[in-house]
Design brief:
With about 450 residues, the chain is of the alpha/beta class. Among the domains are: about 110 residues, OB fold (Dihydrolipoamide Acetyltransferase, E2P), CATH 2.40.50; about 150 residues, 3-Layer(aba) Sandwich (Rossmann fold), CATH 3.40.50.280; about 40 residues, no CATH class. Helices cover about 50% and strands about 20% of the residues. It contains nine helices and 14 strands. A five-stranded mixed barrel has the order 1-2-3-5-4. Helix 4 crosses helix 8. The radius of gyration is 59 Å and the shape is flat. The chain starts with 6 loop residues before the first helix and ends with a strand.
């Protein structure tokens, strides 16, 4: 075919061919990757199909819901699913193919089946649960032991969520007066940031694990599709590996999310989680009271038994004690008589001992006095001669020192022909101390002479 066509003519041929080949409306399954609504009320979407194994995009097309149908379809979809049209969900839509010369191919959406979207969510949940079962981790968090007194609570929730505020209020106003220590790890609880926020909060709690007894994930009530944010493999896997028990109260009365299923315990609402924690504290208190009563009863029985044993032993010990005391008295009497007899004998011997000792002391004293008189006479003579000898030695030593001083006197040294040379008032002891042109002073016994150094 050699006929030449303009671009617009070719576009018209393509459009007419499409309309002739595909004149009807078709039900199409696709995932919303982008959705925008302009000021005229028209809703523009980007629809994609992903490869089921590789998660890569295998098809992409533009879609549009004109304002005349947009409000109805959005309201209809939300009433059935409880969720709005948003990115990331799969939809079944009835479309008509449209081709525009400028904007290209697009699908005009005329109807939508919300039941399909709900079914897709259930299928996705089953696939995640199957994967967790195959990995053998689905019940790991349930196998952890719940603390006996769960008092330190790490909370994953939004600070502005009504469910969080109800949970805190319920804990603090419990009728038993139990005290709970709570720390909020704030995160979005719906929308595309849910996965990142919840996983990040779990990681923060794990970094200070010793501060908490358990973690709770709570949010208020919501639509059926709000549950889909917690049908998430990464959130579920993190919970299965988490070192603390996780309790959920995500606010759904009918269905359980994957997060609920893998948690240690799942409850319907945040206030139900608070009631569970209060009940745990009450059970712990009752258990302690029961143990206390059992200890008291056991102690009372032991005391009664021992009291009876003591009374029985006392009755047995009285005659034995009396017999022992009688025997001990007889033994003491014999010892006392023996001590009296022995004492009399020692007293008689002691009367003779002082007389003999007196004679010995008198004789010894006289002998000692005579010896000391002789020693005192000798010491007297020595004391008279020793000071005189010491004084003579000291005088001789002093005379020797006096002669040495006279010999070493500088005046006498100068008289023997020696001189003293000084420079700037300091005595010159070495040749290296003077330099050329220095003025030096030489002292003789009869005067002083000044000289100038002409060479070194």
């Amino acid at each position: 075919m050699n006929e030449k066509l303009s671009l617009s003519e070719l576009q018209l041929i393509i459009r007419d061919s499409l309309y002739m080949a595909l004149p009807d409306m078709y039900w199409v399954i696709a995932e919303i990757s982008e959705i925008k609504e302009n000021y005229n009320g028209h809703c523009y979407l980007e629809l994609i199909e992903k490869h089921p194994a590789e998660n890569s995009i295998r098809a992409r097309v533009k879609g549009v819901i004109w304002s005349s149908r947009c409000r109805f379809l959005k309201s209809f979809f939300q009433n059935i699913t409880g969720d709005s049209l948003r990115e990331g969900i799969k939809i079944l839509v009835r479309v008509k193919i449209e081709y525009h010369e400028i904007y290209g191919l697009s699908l005009v959406i005329n109807d939508i089946d919300p039941v399909f979207t709900i079914g897709e969510m259930a299928l996705k949940r089953q696939q995640i649960l199957k994967k967790l079962e195959e990995e053998g981790v689905i019940s790991m968090n349930k196998e952890l032991v719940l603390p006996f007194v769960p008092q330190r609570i790490a909370i994953i929730s939004s600070a502005n969520a009504a469910g969080y505020n109800d949970f805190i209020k319920h804990l603090r106003t419990n009728s038993y007066g139990y005290v709970f220590y709570t720390t909020l790890f704030e995160t979005p609880m719906q929308g595309t940031e849910t996965e990142k926020g919840v996983v990040g909060a779990l990681e923060k709690i794990a970094s200070c694990i010793l501060k908490f007894d358990l973690a709770v994930i709570i949010r208020g009530g919501g639509s059926q599709t709000d549950l889909s944010w917690f049908d998430n493999y990464n959130i579920a896997y993190y919970i299965t590996q988490f070192p603390l028990p996780v309790v959920t109260g995500i606010g759904h009365e009918k269905d359980l999310s994957v997060t609920d299923i893998v948690a240690h315990k799942s409850l319907k609402t945040p206030t139900a989680v608070a009631d569970f924690l209060i009940e745990c504290m009450n059970n712990a208190e009752n258990h302690l009271i029961e143990m206390s009563n059992r200890i008291f009863d056991k102690s009372r029985i032991i005391l009664e038994e021992n009291k009876q044993r003591i009374d029985s032993s006392r009755l047995k010990l009285i005659p034995v004690s009396r017999l022992m005391i009688s025997e001990f008295k007889e033994s003491l009497s014999a010892i006392l008589i023996e001590m009296i007899n022995t004492g009399k004998e020692y007293i008689m011997r002691a009367g003779l001992f002082p007389v003999r000792q007196k004679s010995r002391l008198i004789a010894g004293t006289r002998s000692h006095i005579s010896l000391n008189i002789s020693s005192i006479s000798r010491d007297q003579k020595r004391l008279l001669t020793l000071p005189l000898n010491y004084l003579n030695n000291v005088n001789n030593t002093i005379a020797g020192f006096d002669n040495s001083l006279k010999i070493l006197d500088p005046v006498n040294v100068l008289k023997r022909g020696y001189t003293i040379t000084s420079l700037n008032g300091k005595i010159v002891k070495k040749r290296s101390q003077i330099k050329k042109n220095d003025l030096i002073h030489t002292r003789f016994s009869d005067g002083t002479v000044s000289s100038r150094v002409v060479s070194e």
